[in-house]
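tool_call: predict_structure(chain=1)
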Amino acid sequence: QVQLVESGGGLVQPGGSLRLSCAASGSVLRVYHMGWYRQAPGKPRDFVAQITTDGNINYADSVKGRFTISRDYAKSTVYLQMSSLKPEDTAVYYCNAVRVNNFWGQGTQVTVSS
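tool_result:
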């Protein structure tokens, strides 16, 4: 059973930073490619970043140079460090684990506003 629990969202001013965490059950990080997606109101869920089991990392163009995905096997946690946040980064952020099947966390709200 794959369980993903996000945390770390909140309200931040433009230009600020936040770090999101995704705690995964068992050995999920070693078996599944882990990613972050986001969904703004009235918009589809969009890809943000992914780290594969062999360490390859990809980012959406809109977050390159501002966001960093990482993982900690000991804590079974994937992180998304977000810097230089913009109002357009406001969304619910979802953790994703994918191999053959796709699993999602419940999401965490990030609001960038002054």
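agent: The two ends are 40 Å apart (CA to CA). Proceeding to next step.
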